[in-house]
Specification:
The complex is a heterodimer. By secondary structure, chain A is α/β, with parallel strands linked by helices. Chain A has one domain (25-210): P-loop containing nucleotide triphosphate hydrolases (Rossmann fold), CATH 3.40.50.300. Chain A has helices spanning 2-10, 33-38, 61-74, 90-95, 111-123, 139-152; strands at 27-28, 44-45, 48-54, 78-82, 87-88, 103-106, 127-132, 155-161, 173-180, 184-191, 200-204. Chain A has an eight-stranded mixed beta sheet, sandwiched between helices. In chain A, helix 5 packs parallel to helix 6 (139-152). The longest helix of chain A has 14 residues, at 61-74. Chain B is of the alpha+beta class. In chain B, the strands form five sheets. In chain B, strands 8, 9, 10, 11 and 12 form a five-stranded antiparallel beta sheet that branches. Classes of the chains: A alpha/beta, B alpha+beta. At the A-B interface, helix 3, strand 5, helix 4, strand 6 and helix 5 of A face helix 15, strand 13, strand 14, strand 15 and strand 16 of B. Strand 5 (87-88) of chain A pairs antiparallel with strand 15 of chain B, so a sheet runs across the interface.
Chain lengths: 229, 473
């Protein structure tokens, strides 16, 4: 009996409120030391769903995952992009050093196909990461995906709108992403295994547009609002 | 030379029956639909015999299923048999309508004697649920006559074969009805008696053709045979006695066809990545399904899984009367190489092909794409999408290429900028290109931060309108 309890504690499915347990759940480092600290020193949980909740794309959400994508693609694991809202731009990915051989973009027509594809990708041993942009998902579907991710021991990141933060979700990790400061990204933990929610950190992601952090204040004068040069 | 002849008394019926789960009485009727030509064992137990009038037969067995004789189909089915026989025997001659001749004298050492060949063939016939009579002979014609007369034995002794041949009746010896009568009037009743006549007299008094026939049986006259060559492509066809309305019922015959394909590919040490399945309907254009795997494949189970997925995706437009499977493209089977001694890498590449093929079968080939950068200054042309085929290696030159700063998200179409940006962060970068293609682009690109925190890649076109072309996601 005590063995089961130990396992539960080790898996961080049950945890004690007075301490932020260091658990041994499998994970992948995020590539950002601040974010790793926020996620208990582990990073993205493996074999579980991660939800990133954000209002609009273009705030650095891809750049957040880029170190992981690069690392997985380098080790020959396939990274699937399921129903991305825009075109993942190949020259930018190549510039970031991502091995494009391992990137596969998928388009599913309806929710059935979407969940089916996602589930199949997650159960496969070749998959490293699945990034998915669902329209709507029933809690039942998310539960199914969570089980598939556990079965395949794969990483899955769902990008959803921020209004879903009100709903509960079986995902193991839920993060709210919002712009923070000049070109920065604020990450708030909404739910995570083994710890309280509510921690927050801010990442500077200005280099995603080729801007160095120092020159952010020295803005190049644009011609806006006077259109004529 | 020792020959072996396979005679199929009701090949078409065997062929039709093996694709059906349920056994029913079947007969082949001749083109005009009056006489019965072939009878299956079930119909025979009901009392139906070949040569019977159709009316008599239907009154004996009211549930009789009729199949119209079709020489083209018979030829095709016969060739199918040659295809699998080719695995066992090298020299095959087709003898339409219902026989296959094989030269086995040269195969005896391989099979360790005639008994080995004989049992191998019988086992193969049983596996395929085919009825056939076998016979050996020292000339093609002798083997053929013995097989057709059901007098075949597993023997290579010359005397025994000659004796059996000599006892054949005239009609069984292949003489036509008129010649038979003529010979019988002379008091000759068996082939042995005819063969015993002096050849010169036989040609002079009867006809040179009879002499030629007898000499071909004896082997004193040349009887050249054209060997059959296996075709370069794989084809299998199934006709249904009753139309198939549910896609799931196609799977049973499909499994058998795919197993044949698997065996065929194994024998030829080939793989394929493209199957063509053609479903014929009674009053419609046939529907074609192209099943593609993402990599070389030969296993029937994989193909069946993909076809099942496809059939689930698109329902049958009409009942199916016929189904054809063909494979034209063959790929040499790659030997599993690479540095992984324990074969882990191989497993993963197989898993990769399985996953991608499954996804392609369900979502369509176009739904899976792989991205690659392209050398073009215009942002919308600087990337390309290709269908995912097998794991291919990209041009290594592109890897060390220097790329300019670009956003991770590109909008499919530039979209008008509606808000005033909060801050201008970088720019301008002028892109002026494409005039030679009539798609001239002249834009000044900036990086700007919009009020809700997005980093946008905006540009101003020639007519001073502002557009968003990408997000720095």
């Amino acid at each position: 009996m005590s063995e089961i309890l130990t396992t539960l504690l080790q898996d961080a499915r049950v945890w004690q409120g007075h301490r932020h347990t260091s658990t041994n759940q499998p994970a992948e480092l995020t590539g950002y030391s601040r974010l790793d600290t926020l996620l208990g020193g582990h990073g993205w949980p493996r074999g579980a769903l991660t939800e990133c909740l954000l209002d609009t794309p273009g705030i650095g959400e891809l750049y957040l995952l880029l170190p992981l994508v690069r690392r997985l693609a380098e080790t020959g694991r396939t990274v699937f992009w399921l129903n991305p809202p825009y075109i993942p731009y190949a020259p930018a990915l190549a510039r970031a050093g991502v091995n494009l051989e391992e990137i596969i973009v998928l388009h599913a027509r309806d929710r059935g196909d979407f969940v089916w594809s996602l589930e199949n990708c997650l159960r496969s041993p070749v998959t490293g990461l699945v990034m998915a942009w669902p329209d709507t998902l029933a809690p039942r579907d998310i539960r199914r995906l969570q089980l598939a991710a556990e079965a395949g021991n794969n990483l899955c990141v769902l990008f959803r709108e921020r209004r879903y933060s009100e709903q509960s979700s079986p995902a193991a990790l839920r993060l709210v992403l919002e712009p923070d400061g000049p070109q920065g990204l604020g990450v708030t933990v909404l739910k995570r295994r083994g710890s309280w929610s509510g921690q927050r950190c801010s990442l500077t992601l200005a280099q995603r547009a080729g801007l160095s952090t120092g020159t952010v204040s020295s803005v190049v004068r644009g011609p806006w609002p006077a259109p004529a040069r | 030379m020792l020959w072996l002849y396979l005679h199929f008394p009701h090949l078409i019926l065997d062929h039709l029956r093996r694709h059906h789960e349920r056994r029913q009485a079947l007969v082949v009727v001749e083109g005009s639909g009056q006489n019965i030509l072939q009878v299956c064992p079930e119909a025979r137990t009901l009392g139906v015999r070949p040569g019977m009038r159709l009316k008599t037969a239907t009154s004996l067995a009211p549930d009789l299923t009729l199949v119209r004789a079709d020489p083209a189909r018979e030829a095709r089915v016969l060739e199918d048999q040659a295809l699998w026989l080719y695995r066992h025997v090298a020299h095959i001659v087709l003898c339409p309508p219902a026989g296959i001749l094989m030269e086995i004298g040269s195969m005896l050492r391989l099979y360790d004697g005639l008994a080995g060949v004989w049992s191998t063939l019988q086992r193969a016939l049983e596996e395929r649920q085919l009825t056939a009579t076998l016979a050996t002979g020292y000339t093609p014609l002798a083997a053929r006559l013995l097989a057709r007369a059901h007098k075949g034995e597993c023997t290579a002794t010359r005397e025994q074969l000659t004796n059996t041949l000599a006892r054949l009746s005239l009609s069984a010896a292949g003489f036509d009805a008129r010649t038979c009568t003529r010979l019988q009037r002379l008091g000759l009743n068996t082939l042995g008696q005819v063969a015993a006549l002096p050849p010169a007299e036989l040609a002079h008094r009867l006809s040179p053709q009879i002499l030629a026939h007898v000499q071909k049986i004896q082997g004193t006259r040349a009887d050249p045979q054209t060997p059959w060559q296996p075709p370069r492509r794989f084809r299998q066809q199934t006709e249904f006695v009753q139309d198939i309305e549910q896609a799931s019922r196609l799977l049973f015959p499909l499994r058998r066809m795919l197993t044949e394909l698997e065996a065929y590919l194994c024998w030829r040490q080939q793989d394929t990545d493209c199957l063509l399945l053609k479903l014929h309907h009674r009053h419609r254009e046939p529907s074609r399904l192209r099943i593609r795997t993402s990599g070389p494949e030969h296993r029937a189970e994989t193909f069946l899984g993909l076809i099942r997925l496809r059939l689930e995706q698109q329902p049958l437009p009409a009942p199916v009367t016929q189904m054809k499977l063909s494979v034209k493209r063959f790929l040499g089977r790659a030997t599993p190489g690479g540095p992984d001694l324990l074969g882990d890498g191989q497993d993963l590449s197989e898993a990769w092909h399985t996953l991608v093929s499954r996804l392609q079968a369900r979502l369509g080939n176009r739904a899976l794409i792989r991205l690659s950068p392209k050398a073009d200054h215009r942002p919308e042309h600087a990337w390309s999408a290709t269908e995912v085929q097998r794991a291919h290696r990209a041009d290594p030159a592109l890897k060390h290429h220097h790329y300019p700063d670009r956003p991770l998200w590109l909008l499919p179409e530039p979209r008008p900028l509606t808000e005033t940006p909060q801050a201008w962060l970088a720019g301008p970068e002028r892109i002026s290109s494409g005039w030679w293609e009539g798609q001239r682009v002249q834009r000044d690109y900036y990086v700007a931060q919009l009020p809700d925190g997005q980093l946008a890649w905006v540009f101003r076109g020639v007519n001073s309108h502002w557009f968003v072309h990408g997000w720095f996601g």
